Amino acid sequence: MGERRFGEHVIVRRPVGGQSIAELVLDRPTAMNALSTAMAGAISDACTELSTDRSVNVVLLSSTSTRAFCVGADLRERNAFTVQDLARQRLLMRAVYGGVLELPMPTIAAVHGYALGGGYELALACDLIVADTTAVVGLPEVSVGIVPGGGGTQLLPRRVGAARAAQLIFTGQRVPADEALARGLVDVVVQKNEARARALELGATMAGHSPVALRAAKRALREGQGVGLRVGLDLEDAAWRLVASSADRTEGIAAFNEKRAPVWPGE
């Protein structure tokens, strides 16, 4: 399908690298991808379209800015906001982060430079975060009189535990890449300018697998967080039963026994 622009500051490319990968690109480099109302709406629209695209097995979230993945909300725009303006924008912002979080296929954030506040929360909404050595992550919202509102207070504790999340959120600390890796704030760190390439490499491996299995596994992983073990195992069982009755399961086993690459029906 090539490249499609959503609004002025969001690009979706698909397929990427000849694979069933879509790339959602943040493209407001002059503002280090600060999330304006218009840009947030474009991200939400892009996620809505991607969520129903059965040709996409993996989504990569990246940036055209040389200095940042995303620095969070556009505070210059918000400087003139009334409380009513903020309330209206809030509905849209929830749709943005929910849109990324609820994408049914695996998602990978390719992070370089600053990923702060709502920018880091966009990365947290993805399944994996690949960062390069220039990356700096953090949730500094309390320093400007607000709290993380893109899922940070909920997603970060699920990633690193409540105490470590509290330390980051209460201090507003900015954490460089190597320390972020050690603390579990990102999943992979690579050399400068290599985050996108490594994310695409991971995405290509994922995209070669069964679309049905990928989506079912993601659902079980996501819905199983924060529930009891018994409920989690029931969710896993539901995912297993779904794929067991799929054409992908039939093709996967046949391909294994015939020693050939599978051709996934994706049904």
UniProtKB/TrEMBL annotation:
It comes from the Bacteria. Gene3D superfamilies: 2-enoyl-CoA Hydratase, Chain A, domain 1 (3.90.226.10), Lyase 2-enoyl-coa Hydratase, Chain A, domain 2 (1.10.12.10). PROSITE patterns: ENOYL_COA_HYDRATASE. The keyword Lipid metabolism applies. Keywords: Lipid metabolism, Lyase. It holds the Pfam family ECH_1. SUPFAM superfamilies: ClpP/crotonase (SSF52096). Belongs to the enoyl-CoA hydratase/isomerase family. This is Enoyl-CoA hydratase/isomerase family protein. It comes from Streptomyces coerulescens.
